[in-house]
């Protein structure tokens, strides 16, 4: 079976850094990020060439961003809303089709390679980055049966690992897009019936990770985390220079908001790795399980079929009070009443009050009001969500003390990163002072990074 993927280029074109940089720039990346992406794509292409891919053979290049959750802490899988942006860092990938069913994935930076067959019997390896491409391949073979080509994939990323910027979801999206390109999955009837927009693709890829079913595409074992589709939505639907507001279950676009003129984002990766393995995985999943428990008690006590907290809240004007009443009297086999009340109150505040109010403040240019709402979100995470560490709490607080208009931890929690919104003119001094304050308070923590980032474009293929 031979097929030329739609939009493919000869591999030799992807060896040319000038061409790849121009292509990255055309996607909407700023000059420095485009140069980095172009150089990285060329390196990936060179690796495929060295592994035997033909110079005149078809190849495709993808630029897949990481993301920042501006607001929306643990809201997506409960049907809530988030403010998000894609970033100008992420994964750069080159893929060439193979004539067989083998998939070989090369990590250009580490030199590691994994190889597996496209087969529904794949057994991914938890705790290793290969879990993500193997989980994607397994789900594809189950949801899109029939002839499938393997692929030679080379990728490199420049996101801090396990730091809350969605390095794992970016890899999931990148590998799916690579295999979908090689096999032209969008041309298949089952794809067209189930996935008709980027939002629906984001929703589907969220289920690839969490193992749930998507309408028309049955679920399978995921990667082991009970998350939602917020990350995939930011990666696939972000807009350069802007935040996007979405609600979830299903994914629904609400509005886009330009970042304030003259302001940018600085991200502090705390050096406390937010691994989704072992006890950290259990703590992360417990946060999402509490949200499911709230919805479960609501269904049991009311007889309704609302699948999420957000759906329950939409059932009537008195729904919040009814939920509180249920949580105060009903028993759940795994969680205490106070735990579930805290989880509900955090969701209610974050999704129903804070995200809309912060977005309104951004739209009107009221940075003082924005800062107040973000501070409240951080406080709710520390008090009720319970997913903060002393390091992330210090980073958010010290950023505000150093003059940031707003600052918040983001991502799964239990480590990870904090973003700060600062004026462009002061960004470099702010970054240096923020790093100095953090290292003075936590000298024992190694691996912290303080990175300026831009709100970048969504995932895209390098155009012919």
Order of helices and strands: EHHHEEEEHEHHHHEEEHHHHHHEEHEE
| Shape field | globular
Distance between the termini: 24 Å
> Major β-sheet, in short?
9 strands, mixed
Q: Roughly how many Å is the radius of gyration?
A: 22 Å
Based on secondary structure, the structural category is alpha+beta
Percentage of residues assigned to helices: 40-55%
Give start-end ranges of low-pLDDT stretches: none
- Assembly type: single chain
How many strands?
A: 13
- How much is the average pLDDT? 95
Strand content: 15-25%
| Tally of separate helices | 15
Structure description:
The chain is α+β, with helices and mostly antiparallel strands and 464 residues long. The strands form 2 sheets. Strands 1, 2, 3, 4, 5, 6, 7, 8 and 13 form a 9-stranded mixed beta sheet that branches. β10 and β11 (417-423) form a beta hairpin. Helices cover 44% and strands 19% of the residues.
Name its key features.
globular; 15 helices; 4-stranded antiparallel β-sheet; 464 residues; alpha+beta; 9-stranded mixed β-sheet
Describe the secondary structure blueprint for this structure:
Elements: E1 9-10, H1 11-14, H2 17-26, H3 31-50, E2 58-71, E3 81-97, E4 102-107, E5 113-117, H4 131-143, E6 151-157, H5 167-183, H6 189-194, H7 198-210, H8 230-237, E7 242-247, E8 252-258, E9 263-269, H9 278-302, H10 309-313, H11 319-329, H12 337-364, H13 367-385, H14 390-401, E10 406-410, E11 417-423, H15 427-441, E12 449-453, E13 460-461
Parallel strand pairs: 4-6
Antiparallel strand pairs: 1-2, 2-3, 2-13, 3-6, 3-7, 4-5, 7-8, 9-11, 9-12, 10-11
Question: What's this entry about, in short?
Answer:
With 464 residues, this protein is of the alpha+beta class.
């Amino acid at each position: 079976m031979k097929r030329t993927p739609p939009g493919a280029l000869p591999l030799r074109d992807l060896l040319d850094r000038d061409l790849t940089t121009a292509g990255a720039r055309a996607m909407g990346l700023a000059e420095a990020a485009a140069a980095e992406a172009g150089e990285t794509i060329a390196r990936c292409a060179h690796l495929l060439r060295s592994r035997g891919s033909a110079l005149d053979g078809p190849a495709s290049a993808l630029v897949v961003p990481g993301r920042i959750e501006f607001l929306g802490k643990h809201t997506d899988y409960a049907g809530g809303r988030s403010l998000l942006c894609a970033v100008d860092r992420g994964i750069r990938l080159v893929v060439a089709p193979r004539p067989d069913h083998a998939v070989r994935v090369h990590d250009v930076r580490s030199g590691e390679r994994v190889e597996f067959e496209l087969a529904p019997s794949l057994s991914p390896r938890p705790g290793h980055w290969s879990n993500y491409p193997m989980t994607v391949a397994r789900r594809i073979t189950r949801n899109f049966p029939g002839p499938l080509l393997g692929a030679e994939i080379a990728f490199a990323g420049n996101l801090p690992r396990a730091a809350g910027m969605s390095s794992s979801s970016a890899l999931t999206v990148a590998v799916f897009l690579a295999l979908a390109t090689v096999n032209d999955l969008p041309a298949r009837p089952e794809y067209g019936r189930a996935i008709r927009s980027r939002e629906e693709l984001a929703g589907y890829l969220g289920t690839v990770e969490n193992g749930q079913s998507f309408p028309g595409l049955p679920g399978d074992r995921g990667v082991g985390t009970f998350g939602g589709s917020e990350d995939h939505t930011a990666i696939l639907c972000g807009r350069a220079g802007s935040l996007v507001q979405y609600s979830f279950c299903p994914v629904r676009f609400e509005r886009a908001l330009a970042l304030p003129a003259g302001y940018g984002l600085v991200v502090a990766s705390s050096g406390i790795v937010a691994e989704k393995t072992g006890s950290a995985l259990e703590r992360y999943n417990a946060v999402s399980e509490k949200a499911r428990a709230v919805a479960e008690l609501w269904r049991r006590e009311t007889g309704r079929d609302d699948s999420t907290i957000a759906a329950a809240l939409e059932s009537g004007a008195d729904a919040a009070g009814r939920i509180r009443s249920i949580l105060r009297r009903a028993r759940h086999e795994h969680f205490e009443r106070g735990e579930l009340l805290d989880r509900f109150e955090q969701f209610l505040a974050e999704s129903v009050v804070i995200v809309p109010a912060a977005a309104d403040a951004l739209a009107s240019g009221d940075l003082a009001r924005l800062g107040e709402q973000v501070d409240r979100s951080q406080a709710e995470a520390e008090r009720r969500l319970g997913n903060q560490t002393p390091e992330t709490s210090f980073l958010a607080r010290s950023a505000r003390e150093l003059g940031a208009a707003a600052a918040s931890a983001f991502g799964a929690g239990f480590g990870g990163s904090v973003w700060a919104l600062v004026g462009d003119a002061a960004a470099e001094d702010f970054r240096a002072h923020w790093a100095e304050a953090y290292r003075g308070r936590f000298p024992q923590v190694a691996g912290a990074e303080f990175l300026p980032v831009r709100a970048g474009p969504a995932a895209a293929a390098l155009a012919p």
